[in-house]
Records
---
Amino acid sequence: MKEQEKNRIQQAFKEKMDYDELMNCTRCGFCLPSCPTYIETGQNEVHSPRGRIALMKGLVDGVIEPSDEVKESIDLCLGCRACEPVCPSGVQFGHLLEQARDAIYQTNEQSFIEKTTRSFAFNKLFPHQNRIQRATSLIGFYQRSGLQTIAHKTKAIKLVPKDLRAMEKVLPDVPKRKVMKQRPEQVTAIAPRRKRVAFFSGCLMDTMFLSTNDATIKLLQYAGCDIVIPKTQACCGALHGHSGERERAMEMAKRNIEAFEEEAVDYIITNAGGCGAFLHDYEYLLREDADWQKRAADFSRKIKDISSILIDLQFDELDLQVVDQIVTYQDSCHLKNGQHTFMEPRQLIEAIDGVHYVEMTDASRCCGSAGIYNIVESDMSMQILDYKMTQVKNTAAKTIVTANPGCLLQMKLGIEREGLSDSVQAVHLVDFLLQAYEQKEEQVTT
Amino acid sequence: MLDETIRKKFLAIVGNNHFKDDNATLLAYSYDSTAQFQALPDAVITPRDKMDVQAIVNICNEHHIPIVPRGSGTNLCAGTTPLEGGIVLLFTHMNQIIEIDEQNLTMTVQPGVYTKDIFEAATEVGLFYPPDPGSMHISQIGGNISENSGGLRGLKYGVTNDYVLGLEVVLPNGEFIQTGGKLAKDVAGYNLTELFTGAEGTLGVITEATLKLIPKPETTKTMLALFHDLETAAQTVSNIIANRIIPVTLEFLDQPTVKVVEDFAKIGLPTEAKAVLLIEQDGAHEVVERDIATISTLCEENGAFDVQIAQTQEDAEALMTARRSALSALSRLMPTTILEDATVPRSEIANMVQAINDIAKKYDITICTFGHAGDGNLHPTCLTDARNEEEIARVEKAFEEIFEKAVSLGGTITGEHGVGVMKLPYLHLKVGEAGINVIQQIKRAIDPKNIMNPGKIINMSKVEV
Ligand SMILES: Cc1cc2nc3c(=O)[nH]c(=O)nc-3n(C[C@H](O)[C@H](O)[C@H](O)COP(=O)(O)OP(=O)(O)OC[C@H]3O[C@@H](n4cnc5c(N)ncnc54)[C@H](O)[C@@H]3O)c2cc1C
Ligand code: SF4
Ligand code: SF4
């Protein structure tokens, strides 16, 4: 690391880190056994929450200088926040991580980024025509959202061809733009109306997982909700925030608050744990902006995951059925650790006739998807995924249910890598529920 | 910084993957759970087995390099801060349970095994390993042995020392020594097992331990007794024991502690009580029922305004887990928590609680108290801010007075957390000049070059080495 770069980072740490929050860590070590990177690195303190906090504090205090190893520690963090609910001191690790990444990456040099982007495209993608077609959906998304830049800024893309091949296979086809534009802005309840909600459609969900979004809207209708889907909403900004692009994230937050605050709704519903937790955190993100603080707080309070509102509206008491099968659930880290929603998805799954629910060991441990982590830190991501798939196999599940698009893709990738695509499927909770609801309906009507 | 030739020697033993001296690693091993202490080592080495340990010790011995053995770094006496640099030695590759001997009721383990894993492995074969420090899900047995850690079950079952039957240690001169064994009795020479237990890494590196297991108690029952003031609760503790009932657990928590723990655990703890006793008994079914009934009556007679008995095993475990989080949870209130470990004879517990409160008032500081009351072992915890130098000075004075008071009541400066660096200045209060002398002589005899965890327990720089 160059001297100039070191100085810049050290200065940025002094300016950006919340020192009180750093002090809040008593170094008790209670978080260590929950941290996937601590486990997977053979209990390396450098890659533990306690170690990361100490490094951040060490930089602020001037006990150490920034270095490649310090940066690596921050890079290798999944941001899964599994260290938060187990911390007796209540350390908000997610916030510290965002500040640290912001300090490291905000004004990084650009030339390096462009170089690696190009080398990825030329060496890994272009030589394989069929690879491009599928990959464009993801790549297209990355480009549109500006995330590509971040991905490369964070670390040169390290996807090995084997993983990339598997990745291509699991990427869903992107629907035609025409289809994407058809959705109305207002949808009315099918069952007697009980709530009026807004739907946060999310950028990845609304392209690659459009059908899951449609399923979410249907479930809400069946559960008795009128739904508004504001057209002016933007990407939630989570991936930016987590990758050190705090300014961009704040812009997006403001756009979303504006888009939703006019609507008189009970809740703003999300179906992606990652987005939900970040939306929930707008209040924190904009805490220093006097004009936005209250608006952000009002917005954050309304955020609710689809599973949570379905339980509120007793959707689990409806007739639900699938063919007999073993089902397991992979927690979305941010849904669990950020929004504290983990019972509701399980409750819904277990309510379905035909489901034999088997909890996998360490269901709440991160799957290694973690936003763009599986691309920028693919070695660690695959190591974590291998552990996850071993647990899945032990349950003998036919269906892995997830609650976040990143997790869903990662589980599909895991299935592909294990050669299990004939016997195991990964689905989003809402798709599974809709299937269960409509299957029963069909039986009743026929 | 290590000399390049020495660095090469270490690398030759363990290879690149197990030797680290980049600045991130040095920082990550510069602290433990003790507030306000930090010092960077020169390198961090992860031996793969005991032969590696021996080879590393040999080099350190030859070149006078300090060795700081480190478990999970959860000690509370700055016992693993590398004050004089040198190498930190990790046991993450030496983390196997070697054997469970169901004939002799022993377990042989490497130092890096987590305490909780030992407990669970014993439970699996219907046996019981009782020592359960609050940190048991993360602390290593090597650390437990070296601190002679206690836990929530100390009252009835004793501390780690009571379960260490034998040790294998690499001495500072590189020799292996085996002490004790799978023996119920052994009086061959001085009790070296006990010497190395609680030695805080200052006499050698533990590479293997043989632990005693006992039959698993039939059943357990857990209860809470709630009080309107601290002194009555403390007096109840003494009265229960004077009544010749020895519960497994008899923990004391004051109101602020209960509040922060509830904040974290959210299990419906009685935050309205000024003091709470957490009590557990185990054993044969009838005995447990009878004891819990007697204890309940005693609590009520002594002024408890409510007694709650956990209805399910899950509820009971939730209470114990919540108690284990007390120390860290307290830091929700203030940036810095400094805790102490003064211990008095059980009959003096009420006096000690009273004294702590008086001293806190006198120095105008906030002290919350919880701890293993049944063992006479309290953890007065000061909530402060390390950045406030003026207050920290008062905190230090207050703690000194607490130590003096404890000793004057026939107690000690530390019941289970060890001396390390933190309590080194107060050791003389407990052991006197003659005691200091003996400790120095033992240290000098075994570790003449003072390479093992120097600066901990005893100061050698002041004497001729
Ligand atoms: C929240 C919390 C609760 C706690 N509760 C309790 C409690 O109830 N009771 C209690 O007694 N303590 C308690 N402790 C203190 C601490 O957890 C114990 O002292 C524990 O035994 C330390 O284990 P460790 O693996 O972290 O060891 P470390 O802190 O890493 O090391 C402790 C000492 O052991 C030495 N050491 C470690 N391994 C070896 C080895 N192989 N050979 C030679 N020396 C070695 C080190 O040099 C050091 O001196 C608590 C701590 C925290 C943070
Ligand atoms: S559990 Fe919380 S206080 Fe303890 S080391 Fe981890 S982050 Fe720090
Ligand atoms: S966010 Fe996840 S990976 Fe990062 S320190 Fe916390 S537990 Fe570990």
---
Amino acid sequence: MEISLLLEAVYQKYGYDFRQYSQAHIGRRVRNRMALSGINDISQIQSKVLEDKEFAYQLLQDLSITVTEMFRDPEFYKSLRKNVIPILKTYPFIKIWHAGCATGEEAYSMAILLQEEGLYDRTTIYATDFNQLALNRAKEGIFSNKVIKEYTLNYQLMEGKKSFSSYYTSSYDHVIMNQSLKKNIVWANHNLVTDSVFAEVNLILCRNVLIYFDHDLQNKVQKLFYNSLIGGGVLCLGSKESLHFSTLEEKYSVLDKNQRIFKKKY
Amino acid sequence: MKFEAIVIGLSSGGMSAMKMMFSILPKDFGIPIVIVQHINANSNGFWIKFLNDNSNLNIKEADEKEKIMPGNIYIAPPNYHLLIEKNKTFSLTIDERVNFARPSIDVLFETAAETYKEKLIGIVLTGANQDGTEGIKHIKEFGGLAIIQDPETAESSYMPASAMAAIKADYILPLAEIIALLIKIDQQKN
Ligand SMILES: C[S@@+](CC[C@H](N)C(=O)[O-])C[C@H]1O[C@@H](n2cnc3c(N)ncnc32)[C@H](O)[C@@H]1O
């Protein structure tokens, strides 16, 4: 019994398509779930997935990795400020798409940067993910005190202009992000594998999502991004992701090689 | 006996161990080596360049989807787990830390074991936590060769001692002898 059959069953029954994800990654996560649930072989987990909806959604959570941070890779945000903000300033209205936004930290980071640059009021941020639980948490904008320390350091490293604590209110063991940061963020459920283009945007950030996909799926999703960007629009990938091997590489110019920021040619 | 890959896990004390290893291994060393060294998440790739500049071998950071080729030494990038796919390419993930570590030795070892099975050599060197213990168990279960640095000779003994307690290692040796053994194995291959 193979994991590929399990993924086929998940797809047929629930419509979530993991068939072209990294096999080593999926294998690890499935085996972890089996160990936690005391399941010994793949055919057993397959029948459980088909019979038990709760369990199936648990497995979806296992396969969707929502690990994220605010201002993850401070150098990247510095480069955004230097290389991308000037481009955004030339537009009367700005649309930004965070694809695979997880629990929202990246979108809040963007909102902060845009506020500091005086651009937020004319911006709409579409923050999408296929993990509804993560989206629900993102919408709340509540983060634990433990991680705020780390985020504050990241914010300082990216040379934020204010005190990071001015962007949230503290309450006991957590903080709540300011309402003013949330007002132009649209949270939406979107699956990069099975859903199509939903907006034409000036800037796309898809960081640390494509690493989980195989080559063909990466290419397919890159096409989706290409078709969603206006001419001159900007694409930002994660620090270990690239456009190499993508058939679309030559249709972009490089804005920052190290920070993986690309501009769609006209 | 024909080994196709070597995986090595290091934590504290790992830098000097790697420097020693890479200065002794010959230029024509053939079996690809894949390394997880625990390192600060925000460190840039400069230390890898440093190791490469001071060695005859080709040492590089592992890229996602990169094909594993003989004659290379690959090092996991900071803040990503490094996994090996069935088609002998790398994947990177930012899953939760394992044993407080990302990259984690266990993650590399487990996926490497499943791909290379008995054609894999797993090595646990100096370190102050227990990452690598589950991984080396996995390597043994899949028929690979397990080598552990003699804890008494390691800069940090905890990690090799933890691995030693978990399996019956094929070799428990000081680092210099591990290197000599690898060279011998590599030459037998040709
Ligand atoms: C590791 S997080 C990255 C979060 C953030 N972009 C960052 O870099 O910090 C990956 C996210 O991609 C989402 N994801 C994975 N596959 C997806 C798909 N097919 N469609 C939409 N989102 C997906 C996961 O649910 C998860 O929230």
